[in-house]
Each structure stands twice: as structure tokens, then as C-alpha cells.
Amino acid sequence: MEKAAEGVGIFVLYDRIGSHALPGAYIDKLRDGGVQIKAFATRGGWLNRFQINFRNHRKIVVVDGLKGYMGGHNVGDEYMGLKPPLAPWRDTHVEVIGPVVACLQESFAEDWFWATRELPPLSLPDEFPEDGVLCQLLTSGPADAQETCSLFFVEAIHAAEERVWITSPYFIPDEAVTAALTLAVLRGVDVRLLLPSRPDHYVVYAASSLYAFDAVRAGVRVFRYEPGFLHQKVVLVDNDITAIGSANLDNRSFRLNFELMLLTVDSAFSSQMESMLTADFNLAREISVQESHETRRLHQLGMRVARLISPIL
Description:
alpha/beta, three-stranded antiparallel beta sheet, Endonuclease, Chain A, eight-stranded mixed beta sheet, 10 helices
């Protein structure tokens, strides 16, 4: 509100379902302070009552058309480590400059138009830095002609020749991703998954655990991050390809959510991501094949029930 009072145009778009606990008084306060804030939701009406699944999971910040921020961070107390059961919170966000910021603005503008039927003002600089990292913004959503998000993960895994490391808070893969992970193991690729050791949603955690055990038995190295809740979404392929964004390794991100990933091809940046992920793996516990076989029957039953409804989790 301070910046809005200075005359800066502030546009805030929030997902209505994900922000169901957001007080109306808080929204009114922002509007009264000059902030243009809107809810992203499917259109109302009886015919659309089943479309609450189509949620905006993207996290975008653009400042003056010069800088952009994207990744896994939402705006909330838990993301600042203020909710003890999940603290400390582990996430990854990235700052970008250059032409890709225009792509971020375009993605936000499309989402804003969806919610308001109006286009926000766009700010494009006269010139961009000439040096930098080769990158591409990958947007996906339920309206895509192809299942863009699922295809991205499948193609990234198939492209790996030496390694593919993936971190995600949820692991509910479809058959194509499961097959891609298994084939990567069979051709000698170092396949690793980093998942949280603490649940934020118990049913999702149960379903993810069963899929994780299946992956371990297929030869995938699966780790549980122990210091706090792991929410980052990062993919590292070989020594030059990385992806950072909002998409989880689950059906909701594959087919239901509006998602955003930044794909980069740069060995120096990939080296930084390797160091970051190596530090995370060093703070994690690896799930053994023996552990995957020794789960109590009652727990196995709960995981299998959760798995039955996993396509809509």
C-alpha cells in the first residue's frame, strides 16, 4: 500500500481456492489502499460448479518490466517459516532479467485477463542485457491442446544421459512419468527424487509414499528431506539443463493447474543447482528397498486407499 500511495501501479492476482482463508477485510484494506487485487477462479454458475480443480498455481512477480521472480514461494506465513510444524520451510525462487521478463509479464497478463476481462498495462524496456543464460518460460494449463506439463517431465527424463535429479513436495506420477523414470534407471542414469519427510496434507503424503516405495524398488534413489518441509520444484538434467518453477510431480500439476517453469540451458547455472541440491541431499535420509517392504500392513492399506483417489489429489 505504501508503493500504491506513491502512485505505483500494483496488480495482485490470487487463487481463490488456495486462498480460501484470506479474510475479506484484508482484501478490502488493500483495495482501499489503491491495490488492484482480483481473485483467479473459474466462472461462477451452476454449470461450472465442478471446475474448482482448475487452479492458478503460478507464482509471478514482475517489477517495472525489468526484473521478474518465480519459483515455488507463495505469500503466506508458512513460507516465511512461521508455522512450526512445517518450519523451517525449504523452497527455491529465482530472479530473472532480460527478455524472459516480457514472457513473465505476458503470462501474468493472460491470467489477469482471465480473471477480469481487462489487460493490465505492460512495461517493456527499450533494450535488454546481451549476455546471460539461455532460458525459456514454459507455461501450462488445463486448456492446453497437449498435456504440456506432463510432457515436459517425460521429455526431461528421457533426455537424461548421466543424471536426472528432481525435487518435489508431492510425488504422484502418471504412467508416462513412471515409465520414463524406470527406463532412465535401466539405461544407467543416476535418477534421484527428493521429497519431504513431513506431511502438509496427510492423504497426499500417504499416496506419495506408496509411489515412492514403487520407485525405490524400480531402482530410483528416493530421499526424504529432514530439516523442515520441502516445497521446492527443481529439475536438474545432466550438467547443463535445469528447470525451476511451480509444477509438482503430480497429476494436479500435469493436468489441472495453471503452472509455470523456467527451463535453462547453461553449465555454470546447472553447477550452482548441483551444489544446492547436493547440500539438500546431504540433509536427507535415503529410503531403502528394505524399508519399502517393511511398512506395516495398516499403513500399506492407508497408502493404497489414498492411491485410489490420487488422480484428483
